[in-house]
Structure formats: C-alpha cells, structure tokens
Amino acid sequence: MEKKGDALVVVAIDFGTTYSGYAYSFRAEYEKDHTKVYSNSDWKSGDGLATTKTPTVILFSEDKQFCKFGYEAEQKYNTLLEEEEADGWRYFRRFKMRLFRGEEKILERTRVDKITKNLMIEDEQGKPMSALVVFAESIRYLKDQFLQNTQVQGLKFDPNNDIHWVLTVPAIWTDRAKQFMREAAKQAGIPDDMLTLAYEPEAAALYCKELTVQKKEGAESSSLSSFEPGQQFLVLDCGGGTVDVTAYQVQNDGDLRELQRPTGGPWGGTYVDNQYTTFLKELFGADIWSEYSKENPEDVLEIQRRFEAKKKSVNASADDQTTISFPASLFKNIRLLRIVHLLKKALKNQNLQKR
User: Fold this and answer.
1) Residue 320 phi/psi, 5° resolution?
2) How far is residue 29's CA from residue 32's CA, in Å, rounded to a whole number?
3) Which of 3, 69, 107, 205 qualifies as a cystine partner to 141, CB 3.0-4.6 A?
4) Which GO terms describe its molecular function (predicted)?
C-alpha cells in the first residue's frame, strides 16, 4: 500500500486566487463519519473579525526573504506605504492566475511567461521575482500554520509520513501548470509521494454528494434526503480567478461518474474587480488614474478593500442602490492632476503654434 493510505490525517490546502485556507480530517474519524472535517476559522482580519480564509497575498523583504502572508501581509504593506518605506519590498496579490495567463500566451505561440521553474512574475510595483519562490512560500506558510495550530492542540505529526497533503487546482489548468504547483509544493517541504492534486470542482462534487440535501417533490409532506443512485447534479464553482463547471451521476455503489469533462474559464470574482478598475480609469481618465495609483498606492489599496467588502454584501434581491465610499485624497489629488494635465496640454499646444 502506498504511504498516503497509511497517513493519520489528510490536510487539504485550498490555494485560491483571492483567499486561501486549509481543512483536515483524521483517518480514524473519517472512516466512521465522512463529514467529520475541521478547518481553521480563526484568521484575524484587520478589523478584528475571524474568517474561514485569509487573503492570498504575500510580502517579501528587501532582500527577497519571506515576511508575511494573508491579513498580516496586507497590514504590513499598508504600513510601509504610509511611512513611504515600501521601496524594495515585494508585495504579491492575486498571482495564482498568472499561471493561466502564461498558458494563454503559450497557446498564442509566444515565448513570454512560459511556465517553467524559471518563470518570473511582477509584484504590485512591477518588480520581478521567481514565481516558484512566491508560490512555494505561500504553500509553506499554509502548511506551517496547520502544523503549528495542531501542535498547540497537543497534536504532533511527522509532515513527511503522517500527513497526506492535498492541493487544489482549477479544472481548466493544463498539465504544465499542475506540474508547476507540484514543484512549488515540493519546494515548500511537502514530499511528492504524500501529495495529491485535486481539481477544485471535483472536490466540491464529493462534498455535495456527502452533505447536500434536496427537497423531495410530489410527496404530501416535504422531506430532505441525500442524492440517490442514478441522480445527476451539476457543480458550478465560482471562485476568485476561475469559474469551473462539472456534472456527475451517482452510481449504485455511491461513487460518482463524470458526465462531462470539466470546463470553465477565467471569469471569477477578480474579473469583476478588473472591470471596476476599468470603470475608474474611464471615469477619471486612464493617464490621471495611472498617475494617482503611482503616487497614492496606500489609498488605491484602500479603494480595493472597500470594493471587495461591498461586493460581498450585494445580493440578487437587493433593489437599493449600492454606495461605495472613497478616500478624501482621491478627489483632491484627481482635481490637482487634472489641472496639471490641462496645463501640460495647453503648453504643448502653445509650443506647436509657435513652430
């Protein structure tokens, strides 16, 4: 039997585009109850709230050493920006989809961003760094968080033999992108023979099969039950970076049969964020917004945070308008930048007339 089958605990790392976390299940408990799964729901946000996941952001020091991850990285970087000490530091956010964009460029027969161990990605300030290091340190942090938290609970595991690690990946990723994630996990200290890559929608489907209940129709009184053999269901996994779609049928033995190959695309929540940024560029002017972003990165970070918070509170049945507040510096600086741009344009026209 392979080592994974003898593992005492299975730890699943959900490495997301916008948020990440982990969950785990003890083998002995799972054999009795498949729904006995634990997760860390104690990530502390900047406003003191406890959440089930932490932002997928990572901060490296001036000498490219790992510094912070998640909420702590956001807070540290914001402080550096406010104190004008961020130069040289490297702050990465929403970098997971760089692998998908790299694949798109490969398909277009370009040599840019080819997914290899030498792939470089740029941080928020445009400074390059090894993608493998960025991904590996992110995975290492989540792995170490599990080990530290369970140790506090009085549990101690040998990460090389006692733990079966599972790392989730989007269904639309190619073998090249998946191999890159496996290399990153290996560099993070996870043994290759104790690692399994799982498609995100497939993991969601297994969860649905175990936990989802449905309302029975046609009965005099409503009742709830789990999926039965022969029944089919579709999973629409809307994440931060991708939307994955899969369909399954429950077999007589309880297993799932895939009805259609997983499909999807880069249409996750970050697509909405990008459209919002495009709207702001159109509203204030692309050149002015670009200049404002360079001169006021801490305020742009705050604008992104406020939009993210507002996005979570919107629901389909809401009829009221949604109001988003902006930092006071935005309108003050935008007004000043517009005046500067108008003066530059006037001077340019004046010089052209003299010629």
Assistant:
1) -75, 155
2) 5
3) 69
4) ATP binding; ATP-dependent protein folding chaperone
Closest by CA to 165, choosing from 186, 187, 190, 134, is 190
User: Which residues, 6+ apart, have CB-to-CB distance to 207 below 8 Å?
Assistant: none
In angstroms, the CA 58 to CA 211 distance is 33
pLDDT in tens, 296-305: 877 888 888 8
Q: Is the dihedral of CA 291, 293, 295, 296 positive or negative?
A: positive
Strand partners, 66: 60
Q: Among candidates 39, 69, 35, which has minimal Cα distance to 52?
A: 39
Cα–Cα dist 153/38, whole Å: 13
In 157-211, which ranges are continuous DSSP H helix?
A: 175-187, 200-211
CA pair distance 269, 243, nearest whole angstrom: 9
Contact (Cβ atoms closer than 8 angstroms) between residue 17 and residue 92 = no
The structure's pTM equals 0.78
Residue 226 near residue 216, CB atoms below 8 Å: no
Q: Where are the beta strands (DSSP E) in the chain?
A: 9-15, 19-26, 38-39, 43-44, 50-51, 54-55, 57-60, 66-69, 90-93, 120-122, 128-130, 163-169, 195-199, 214-215, 224-225, 232-238, 243-250, 256-265
Give the integer Cα–Cα distance in Å for 66 and 137: 7
Amino acid at 312: K
Cα 10 from Cα 4, distance rounded (Å) = 9
